[in-house]
Amino acid sequence: MEKDIKKKLVRNWFKVLQDVICFDIEELEQKSKKFESTEWKRNNKKDEGGGEYRILENGKIFDKVGVNFSEVYGKFSKEFRNKIPGTNLSPNFWASGISIVMHMKNPQVPAMHFNTRYIQTSYGWFGGGIDITPCIKDDNLKKWFHKEIKLACDRHNKSYYKKYKKKCDEYFYLPHRKESRGIGGIFFDYKKENWKKDFHFVRDVGVTFKRIFREIINKKNNNKWSNKDKEVQYQKRGRYVEFNLLYDRGTRFGLQTDGNVEAILMSLPPIAKWK
Fold first, then answer.
1. Is the pTM of this model over 0.85?
2. For residue 100, what is the DSSP state?
3. Annotated catalytic residue: which of 103, 113, 146, 156?
4. Which domains are seen in the chain, by residue range?
5. How many CA atoms lie within 13 A of 171 on its CB side?
């Protein structure tokens, strides 16, 4: 399959997924809140792509949720080029992805994160994952969440869950705190075994997240919570901020490729606290 066809298929899937998930979120909010949408360009002087970020804030269920789509292309800087696979022959790149971060009103509902992406240099690869960050411990939710993620992985390859769970646990870790950001999930990168099979898996990860986030909200959103729970949530969000600003690859990639700063930092919660 030609590179341009692959790019078009991937880009269209990410855009459709953005639309569908935004529709689901507004439906959960009973249409009382709508997303504010902002389109952006990577370069205002020449065509290097861009994207659209959508943010909904202060809803009945969501304190803040961002749903970002991007499609960017151009040339890596000399400094950044050495850090990206496949750029030894040419600095040219193309990248598209969708990224979603949900910060919830009810502290009993975990923060949720999903992203999938495709990057093309001299060769192409997929990356992405799903993870959740509860601030109130719930062993039953943890078991259910990992069971659902495993079922999604097993549909494609029985080895995926164990491998990608391990990568997620290693990736979402704050070394300076010596603690994990949340309860894990799956994380994969540089995935390029078989394009058709990999793209099928990436689509399934997106569909799985669409189902899982709704089920978690339905399970947890009516649970009672206290002011003490809210303070715990604010402090847990502080850890979220620390990880995203200090360690997150997506944040660094976006900033170093002239991405839109507001879109990149949409993952940050509206309120966080440190003790």
1. yes
2. E
3. 113
4. 3-267 (3.40.1500.10)
5. 21
